[in-house]
Amino acid sequence: AENVANHIRRSPDGPLEEVFGTFDITLAQLHGSPHLVVTAVETTESALLAQDYKRLHEDETRRLTFAETMDRVNTVIHSSLDYDEVMQRSLEEATKALGARAGSVILGSECESEARYIFGIPHALLGRRFSADVFPFSTLMEEKKVPIPVGAEDMGHLMNPLLARAFRVRSLLAIPLVLRGRLVGGIGLIYGRPHEFTTAELNFAKTFGASVSLALENAQLYRRQEHVADTLQAALLVLPERIPGVLFATAYNSASTASKVGGDFFDLFELEHNRVAFTVGDISGKGLDAAVLTSLVKHAVRTRAMEARTSPAAVMKVVNKVLLEGSGPEAFATVFFGILDCDNGVLVYCNAGHTTAALARSGGAVEKLGSNSQLVGALEQASFANDETTLERDDTLLLYTDGLTEARAGKEFFGEERLMRLVHLVGAEEPEVLVGAVLDAVLEFSGGELTDDVAILALQLE
Q1: Which of 65, 68, 175, 270 has a 20 to 30 A CA-CA distance from 367?
Q2: DSSP assignment of 125-173, as one string?
Q3: How do 102-108 and 275-283 pair as beta strands?
Q4: How many distinct helices (H) and strands (E) make up the chain?
Q5: 3-state SS class at 96
Q6: pLDDT by residue (tens digit) across 196-240?
Q7: Which of 200, 184, 172 shows the shortest CA–CA distance to 66?
Q8: pLDDT grade, residue 295 (50/70/90)?
Q9: N- to C-terminal Cα separation, the chain
Q10: Does residue 191 contact residue 170 with C-beta atoms inside 8 Å?
Q11: Lowest-pLDDT range of 25-39, 349-363, 381-395
Q12: CA 366 from chain center: how many Å?
């Protein structure tokens, strides 16, 4: 108390808010009243401690909010293949975490940009194109590559005044989107009131911008790969319009819930001595890698099958070696490969872990051609065998990938049994009729929602 009194004696007479904060205590009130001095000091210290605690609590709450927001954003980025969903949800998370009124993602070039995603802004702005001079802060963003806070005092030279008035912008946080060192756009968070940006907010914005930029770069790479994979797979599914000696039909239906190219394929080609070779296979994996392996397997089959006196088992043995040497340990394939003699109807085949083929006899019976060999590309010492059957002139052979039998209706699979009953019911019709009936049945069963790609090939002697 005496130390405080000495300090007060050195202070000018009148209000002493610098000493006691919000207390308006004069020297006259304190003179000769040590008790009052002690009470005032203790109360002031408690108030300051409470303020410090409140500030620390708010800082910690904000820090946790930012951390949780980044966790959610990263989860969205890494769990969804839908880039539009990733960008929209990330924008919404950042807008809420930073307490902004609204936000938008602007993407474009140096000359023109477009509002690609919006949140809390009139829908009419979506897709709106802007010239470069509408966002003066973009020059600063291009130069520094860090979030640019635009306060009320900066509005005149960093924000287009007409746009600021139209959307009632009092403060703005511009977060750059940078790909390989080049600015490709930005995220603008709008505040309807003056806002002083803290270091924590700017650090969060920087981390957030880096994550979204990486997601944008991955999306562009993914789309390029998907385009290549789509083109490659389409080429792999092309068959001749006609092959002498056989009638055939095919169908390919992509999965409804997958956004990557699958590894399902079929092939049909002529061999010498009036023979026809055909393949239906399913490569593990999705996307460009699967398409590349599909090409590898398809062309390895063709190359080996062209050799004289070869057998399906010998072809599969070579393909197994090629796949083991040309891919990682996680790559494998199921393949049904057969060679049909069109003169006598003899079919020699090797079913390397593939689905059971159905041979619809003209008399109404259905013969199953099940697996007789191991997967291709799984084991170095895998064994492969040949089996033989005969196609009569009115018999129809149906081959397919497991996306057909594994199609679902709730928890129930379409299944092999249901397929065989369907083939028996349709009978040995022309390939086009049988393929159409099978595809219609599986789409009706699954409600049009397939969980995996489906490839179908049917053929009979001409």
Answers
A1: 270
A2: GTT-EEEGGG-THHHHHHHH-S-EEE-GGGHHHHS-HHHHHHTT-SEEE
A3: unpaired
A4: 14, 18
A5: helix
A6: 899 889 998 998 888 888 877 777 766 666 666 566 666 666 788
A7: 200
A8: confident
A9: 113
A10: yes
A11: 25-39
A12: 42
Using an 8 Å Cβ cutoff, are 393 and 428 in contact? no
- How many CB atoms are located within 10 Å of the residue 296 CB? 20
| Euclidean distance between CA atoms 290 and 294, whole angstroms | 6
pLDDT band at 20 (very low <50, low <70, confident <90, very high): very low
Distances (CA, A) of 194 to 168, 172, 362: 11, 9, 83
The dihedral through the CA atoms of 104, 109, 110, 113 has a sign that is: negative
CB-count burial class (<10 Å; 0-12, 13-18, 19+) for 419: buried
Distances (CA, A) of 441 to 273, 300, 354, 396: 38, 34, 21, 18
What's the rounded Cα separation, in Å, for the pair 74 and 215?
A: 9
Mean residue pLDDT of the chain comes to 82
What's the pTM?
A: 0.56
Task: Answer whether residue 339 shows pLDDT above 60.
Answer: yes
Cα torsion through 274, 376, 352, 342, rounded to 10: 0
- CA dist 337 and 206 (Å) reads 55
What's the CA gap between 301 and 267, in Å, rounded? 10
**Could you tell me what percentage of the chain is helix, strand and coil, using 3-state DSSP and rounding each to the nearest 5?**
45, 25, 30
Contact by Cβ (8 Å): 399, 457: yes
Angle between helices 431-446 and 416-426 (to 10 degrees): 140
Rounded Cα–Cα distance for residues 63 and 280 (Å): 56
Nearest to 207 by CA among 73, 56, 58: 73
Say which amino acid occupies 5. A
In a 3-state reduction of DSSP, which class is residue 352?
A: strand
Residue bearing tokens 């799984």? 378
308 contact partners, CB below 8 Å, separation of at least 6: 272
Q: Write out the DSSP string of 266-277.
A: EEEEEETTTEEE
Going by C-alpha positions, the residue among 262, 187, 186 that lies closest to residue 230 is 262
Token readout for 428 is 């040995």
Which two tokens mark 441? 């049945």
More confident residue, 390 or 309: 390
d(CA 223, CA 38): 72
